[in-house]
Design a protein that fits this description.
The protein is an alpha+beta fold. The chain is about 35% helix and about 20% strand.
Length: about 1400
């Protein structure tokens, strides 16, 4: 059935019969239009016509009825028929149809440079779409034009769906057709909401596109002008490769355009002046366009030749146009998605589940086969040494099992009579047994079922099914189920958390079927695509993992099955078509889909795939190599071609080029993972080595080179030359290879694109890769807009983009050697190209784009001689590393659980499973970028005089080296011996374990982060090491005793003896740590107090300090208005009778905690959140906030007050967070005496936040202020947010001369609207000898917005005078507060519109 849609426009005064067509081709689809609605056809009387010409369509033929009345129409369910109303007196070219009800549909065609079809629906309602396609001739299927109205989607690869644009009660759609080969349009109207179809008397509407005929004129356009116009059209359309038919159409279209121009008043001289240069030569130069045939570049396939362009002029583009920003999807199991409805199990699945859940049964085998719209389940179980085969299906027709047993795989042996189920019919080598019907979970939920008990000595059961008068087989072969369980012990697959478990289980169950051939595997994958798409990114991750295991040869490629290359190619084509459709409709999954497609290969409908089978015979015949290895390979190719054949062909070419050095042959094979054992493992094994003679060399190189292209066209989605050929078109010429293969060029490619691709091919092997990379990236940029639009050849464009991406990676890897001596500017430029390449391949790429903008800024600073370029570039480098690490972590979260689960289900080698994500990253665009960044790092550190270390806490230490992955994983541990921790990851929020004397890390916590402050307070050496060689050396010394001696910019370390440690211990024992005690605070009778009431008995130091500053700091320093919920408020609320149940529950949990059950900490926090606010607390808090000039949340509604109350309770609950609880235990503080006041402040929506230490914490220099600044709120500075803040120092006697030590690399900033924040203020903070600051939570009433930061337009980074002003103001505020207190201060504050606000201060420790 043809998938066609169109329009037949009828001149109102003349109706002509259209060409005869078969009526079976009139509807695009078979069962698409079955719905419930019916409509009565009526004729139009509203036009006041003297005569109505009725017409209907038989196929695509218009039949004209001369009578004035319409015939009686047959009503079709779900279809609304249209009546053609034509005004004989009208001069308009167009038609008007009457649809159901009052809906009229005028259709008009206009022709200027291209035909435009305008369709209007009057009095329309509902969700109406135009379901349409184009026709090149009357007998072909619909084609899907590349130029489409906005909102158009591809419908099942057979038609286009375009929404009508509503305007009041009318709706419109306009279709422009720029493909000159399309002669007409066909269409239907569909109301998607009601599944109602509007048709034209059971047929499609058909619109003939009016040809651009030569207007009546005495002027004859000379052929030379037509040639030039045709050339300009060809150039404008991207210099595509046309077939001879297309060339003639284009040539006549050019002639029609010139006659139209004359009709509009232009003279031949005007046209000649426009088309030619002043000297009279035409603009087409050497291109020959004659007799309707555009020669040379228009027809030739892409081939290597001398090319005129020697460099690429990159277009200027706005980087933000590259932004892909989709809503991030949290990585959780499909079953965990709250919005996902539980899957309704079919009757067969319920039956299977009931058997599998029986505790005394072992499952030996489970297979599911597709039978029409139903499935056949075959389950082999073993219980009490008895094997039983269970067969179940939802098929309704009565079934008979025609079966046998095997002692050797595949053989048919008659089953012993004692094993035959009752009613079976024994035969010579088999038996027939009927299925019985049973009900599962309800009378209507029925299945056909058969259970057979099997005796000993049999290994499997072959069978077929018989229903009615037809045999049912497994894709033309017998079904076969093995009784023997897996050879390897089945691994524990776990619970499948973080995966689409149901889909992975189905894949595992179908793997034995998929092993038969690529055709089977790709068809199964295609069948599963709908389920994968519905499961979202986890479903697509499941398909990717499965396909990747296939591509890396972890799964069997072909097993006892003979498949034609054409069939494999067709199966690939089917799967990639489905992937293409998901790519168009679900752009948020484009990165995953690209990765799947790169593992699958292009495929193709027949032609190219079958060449694999045919052309190997041509090679053998032409080169007299019919025996030996070539014959074995021929047999393998005929049986089941695979991507291995690409490698084998390349190995043969390399072997011949080396003058028949057999070691070269084996080297190519082994390098690509093909061993001798693998060659022998094929169903048609390759046992022999190739043996050729010198006389065969030239012919074999030619023929195998052509054959390699054929193999790559099918098997490789990332091969550049075949990908280019598939997009630009290929027309076979001559004899031999690719004869009969005709790949049409993709229409609508950008102007100059073919030359750009030719340039890439010319330079693909250049040693100096810079120019090649520019060409590759320019090609990808040109492709980018095409990839976001529907196109029936979109997958070919995707494979081209994947191939260009892959070539970028291989090109840069080829250049590593010469980069060892490259200047920084060249390395940075190459980084920008690789980063652009990664951006083009990535979803949610905003952070990467800002990294690229940062590199461009660094390059500009370097070129203009800015002395701080290296320091700035180092910050961009650090951010780029963080972005790459984040991408790797996302891949790991998304893919590794599926790899682990499926790998366990399929019993794959553990090494292949454990490195799955790592290998995916290595194979992607990020790996070469990471390598280049690592090469640049030491160069930047050297130029910026950064050294290899950043010293955060300069304390000498002696201890034993212990290597850990994360500091977080050991924060609650106690080390008996003094320990130097070398930790790969430090976030900034951790505790430092007891017994630790030093923490060394490659991570970059801020100098003023919580963990940094605690390290200094605890006299623990803490430093970041930037040199991977030093880190490797430190790790190699694990278990050894080292002495660390920090300097201002380095750490000197050496191995020492235990005697040095004893000496150090003796020295330390002379000074005992001070005793730390808490004093229990009591409730003072008030639920809320103003800042004037803050005392040490009511609130902590945080609140008192902010109250003390008010009125004492300079007027240009702002202090936020503050009130507090004082000490004892929590205990008072807990004791209220409203909260009696909560109090009792908390008491039980605290007793468990005291007994050492630390798991209850989270439960305690949740229980605190159950507290109810006493009315008196609510009223007092309201009065105090309003009298202080703060907004009362309840004024905005009860919900806003509830938000505030939850935030208050979260502050109280943070008394029991793990970090704080274990910290107090270590210093033996009585946790029961800890009291929590809550400081309430209005949030200042900050442009920047800062932390000041008025004595430099790294050097201890009291004359120097050290500060760090971040964009947005300060939580990214003091919390566990990756990246560095801007850091600077300033001398107290030169406060107007700040010196920037480092630019920011934090990718995220936090911003918030006007709101309230509730800050923890305990009696356990700022105690002498104990760093309690930062242990407890401060909670804003509203959630902060996370914003990806663009520093390239931030005045604090780019505007020197603004930077100096802000940093100097921050320093002056710190200096003033230190003078006010008379001691070094640790100060937090924000900047808003250039004004400094201080939100808290405490003594610097």
């Amino acid at each position: 059935m043809s998938n066609t849609v169109g329009h037949s426009l009828i001149q109102s005064t003349v109706l002509k019969h259209q060409s005869q067509r078969n009526s079976s081709t009139c509807i695009a689809g078979n069962t698409l239009f079955q719905a419930q609605a019916t409509s009565q056809i009526r004729k139009s009387s509203s036009l006041g016509l003297t005569s109505i010409l009725s017409s209907d369509f038989r196929g695509r033929r218009l039949t004209v009825r001369k009578s004035g009345s319409l015939p009686t129409k047959r009503l079709v369910s779900g279809l609304v028929q249209a009546v053609l109303a034509t005004d004989q007196t009208s001069e308009q070219l167009g038609e008007k149809y009457i649809l159901g009800g009052d809906i009229e549909m005028p259709v008009d065609v206009k022709v200027s440079s291209i035909p435009v079809v305008e369709i209007q629906l009057t009095n329309s309602t509902g969700n109406l779409y135009l379901h349409w396609g184009g026709l090149k001739n009357l007998k072909e299927k619909w084609v899907l034009p590349g130029r489409r109205p906005e909102g158009t989607k591809v419908y099942k690869d057979r038609a286009l769906r375009t929404p009508f644009v509503k305007s009041g009660s009318n709706a419109f759609v306009k279709v422009e057709v720029d493909d000159p080969s399309i002669q007409s349009l066909e269409f239907l109207i569909v109301d998607e909401g009601k599944n109602k179809w509007y048709k034209n008397n059971d047929q499609n509407f058909h619109v003939k596109l009016r040809s651009r005929e030569k207007p009546v004129s005495n002027v004859v356009v000379p052929e030379d002008l037509v040639e030039i116009q045709a050339f300009l059209r060809w150039e404008k359309k991207g210099k595509q490769m046309y077939t001879p038919e297309q060339e003639k159409i284009e040539y006549e279209a050019a002639r029609a355009e010139l006659y139209e121009e004359i009709a509009r008043g232009s003279s031949l001289e005007d046209i000649r002046t426009r088309l030619t240069k002043k000297d009279g030569t035409n603009s087409k130069q050497s291109t020959d366009v004659s007799g309707g045939n555009i020669q040379t570049k228009v027809r030739k396939p892409v081939e290597k030749k001398t090319y005129s362009i020697q460099s690429i002029q990159r277009k200027k583009r706005d980087l933000m146009q590259l932004l892909n920003k989709h809503i991030p999807v949290s990585i959780k199991s499909v079953e965990e998605k709250p919005s996902m409805k539980p899957k309704t199990l079919s009757a067969v699945e319920l039956y299977s589940k009931a058997i599998e859940e029986q505790s005394d049964i072992n499952i030996l085998n489970k297979k599911t086969y597709k039978l029409a719209e139903e499935e056949l389940l075959v389950l082999v179980t073993k219980a009490s040494s008895k094997i039983r085969v269970h067969l179940a299906t939802g098929l309704k027709e009565p079934l008979t099992l025609h079966w046998s047993l095997s002692k050797k795989a595949g053989e048919w042996l008659a089953p012993p009579e004692h094993l035959l189920p009752q009613g079976s019919t024994p035969l010579a080598t088999s038996a027939d047994t009927q299925f019985s019907t049973i009900s599962i979970d309800g009378a209507t939920n029925k299945i056909q079922l058969l259970e057979i008990e099997i005796g000993e000595g049999f290994v499997g059961m072959p069978f077929v099914l018989f229903s009615g008068n037809k045999w049912i087989k497994n894709n033309g072969s017998d079904f076969y189920v093995e009784f023997i369980g897996p050879k390897k012990a089945t691994k524990d697959a776990g619970d499948g958390k973080g995966t689409a478990k149901a889909l992975l289980d189905k894949i595992a169950g179908l793997e034995s079927e998929a092993q038969k051939s690529f055709m089977h595997r790709f068809n199964i994958a295609a069948d599963l695509m709908e389920e994968a798409k519905d499961a979202g990114e986890l479903g697509l991750a499941a398909i990717l993992v499965w396909m990747r295991f296939m591509a890396t040869r972890q799964l069997i490629w072909n097993k006892n099955y003979n498949v034609k290359p054409r069939e494999i190619s067709r199966a690939q084509d089917r799967l990639t078509d489905l992937l293409q459709n998901v790519y168009v409709n679900y752009p948020q999954y484009s990165e995953l889909l690209r990765m799947i497609m790169s593992t699958v290969g292009r495929g193709g409908e027949g032609d190219v795939g079958q060449r694999i089978r045919d052309e190997i015979l041509v090679i053998q015949r032409n080169n007299d190599c019919a025996g030996g290895m070539m014959e074995e390979w021929h047999q393998k190719l005929h049986n089941n071609t695979s991507p291995d054949d690409v490698v084998i062909c390349q190995a043969l070419i390399d072997y011949i080029k080396s003058d028949f050095d057999i070691s070269v042959y084996w080297n190519t094979l082994n390098t690509n993972g093909i061993t001798k054992e693998r060659l022998l493992s094929y169903d048609r094994a390759i046992r022999n080595e190739p043996k050729f003679s010198g006389g065969q060399k030239e012919g074999l190189l030619r023929d195998l080179g052509n054959y390699l292209r054929t193999l790559k066209a099918v098997h490789s989605g990332a091969d550049l030359e075949s990908a280019i050929t598939n997009c630009m078109g290929y027309k076979s010429e001559g004899q031999g290879f690719m004869v009969g293969v005709n790949i049409n060029p993709i229409s609508g490619l950008p102007s100059g694109f073919p030359e750009l691709l030719q340039f890439v091919l010319e330079h693909v092997e250049d040693k100096n890769v810079e120019t090649l990379l520019e060409g590759l990236l320019e090609a990808r940029e040109e492709l980018r807009t095409l990839l976001s639009k529907p196109n029936d050849r979109l997958k070919d464009l995707l494979f081209l983009d994947i191939a260009l991406d892959s070539t970028v990676r291989t090109a840069i890897e080829r250049s590593y050697g010469e980069l060892n001596s490259a200047k920084p500017e060249k390395v940075i430029y190459l980084i920008t190209l690789l980063l652009e390449n990664l951006i083009l391949s990535s979803d949610n790429n905003e952070d990467l784009i800002y990294c690229l903008k940062g590199w461009n800024q660094a390059l500009s600073m370097l070129e203009t001689g800015d002395g701080s370029w290296a320091l700035f570039a180092k910050s961009v480098l650090d951010r780029t590393r963080l972005a790459l690490a984040s991408k790797g972590e996302l891949y790991h979260q998304l893919l590794q659980p599926s790899a682990e689960y499926l790998g366990a289900r399929l019993n794959l080698d553990q090494w292949a499973v454990s490195i799955f994500t790592e290998e995916m990253i290595r194979a992607g665009s990020a790996a070469p970028l990471s390598s280049l960044v690592n090469r640049l790092d030491p160069i930047l550190r050297n130029v910026a005089n950064l050294g290899s270390w950043q010293i955060i806490s300069p304390v000498e230490a002696i201890g034993y080296v212990v290597v850990v992955d994360k500091l977080l994983s050991v924060q609650n541990k106690t080390y008996e011996l003094p320990t130097i921790l070398v930790a790969k990851s430090v976030s900034g929020e951790e505790e430092i374990p007891d017994g630790t004397v030093a923490v060394l890390t490659p991570d970059m916590p801020d100098v003023l982060s919580h963990v940094s402050v605690r390290a200094r307070n605890s006299k623990v050496c803490f430093a970041t090491c930037f040199d991977p060689n030093i880190l490797d050396d430190l790790r190699s010394k694990e278990g050894k005793l080292l002495k660390l001696k920090p300097t201002s910019a380095d750490i000197i370390y050496s191995e020492v003896q235990e005697g040095d440690l004893k000496q150090l211990n003796n020295t330390e024992e002379n000074g005992q740590p001070p005793s730390i005690k808490l004093v229990k605070k009591q409730f003072a009778g008030k639920f809320a107090i103003s800042s004037e009431e803050f005392t040490s008995e009511m609130v902590g130091a945080k609140s008192r300090n902010i109250a003390y500053l008010k009125g004492k700091v300079p007027s240009w320093v702002g202090i936020p208005t503050s009130i507090a919920l004082p000490f004892g408020t929590f205990e008072k609320v807990l004791s209220d009778e409203l909260n009696q149940g909560v109090s009792e529950k908390l008491q039980i949990l605290k007793e468990k905690l005291a007994a050492g059950n630390f798991d209850v900490l989270e439960e305690i926090r949740k229980t605190v959140l159950e507290l109810v606010a006493p009315p008196q607390l609510v009223q007092e808090l309201k009065n105090k906030m309003q009298s202080s000039g703060m907004p009362w949340p309840g004024d905005e509604g009860q919900q806003r007050w509830e938000q505030a109350w939850i935030a208050i309770k979260k502050v109280w609950a943070s008394k029991w967070n793990e970090r704080a609880y274990f910290s107090t235990r270590k210093v033996k503080l009585d946790h029961g005496l800890l009291c929590m006041a809550v400081l309430v402040q209005e949030i200042i929506n900050a442009d920047y936040a800062f932390v000041i230490h008025t004595t430099n914490p790294s050097s201890g220099d009291p004359s120097e202020i050290y500060a760090e600044v971040v964009k947005g709120l300060g939580e990214t500075l003091v919390g566990a947010y990756p990246g560095r803040a801007l850091s600077f120092i300033v001398k107290k006697d030169k406060l107007d001369s700040p010196k920037v030590l480092g630019y920011p690399s934090k990718p995220i900033g936090l911003f918030i609207k006007r709101s309230i924040i509730f800050r923890s203020d305990s009696n356990g903070e700022d105690l002498e000898g104990y760093a309690g600051a930062g242990l407890y939570d401060s909670v804003p009433m509203d959630e902060e917005e996370k914003v990806v930061l663009d520093y390239s337009c931030d005045p604090l980074m780019m505007d020197g005078s603004f930077q100096k002003s802000i940093l100097s103001s921050i320093a002056r505020a710190g200096d003033a507060i230190e003078k006010l207190y008379g001691s070094p201060q640790d100060i937090e504050g924000v900047v808003r519109d250039g004004k400094i606000y201080v939100v808290q201060t405490r003594p610097q420790m």
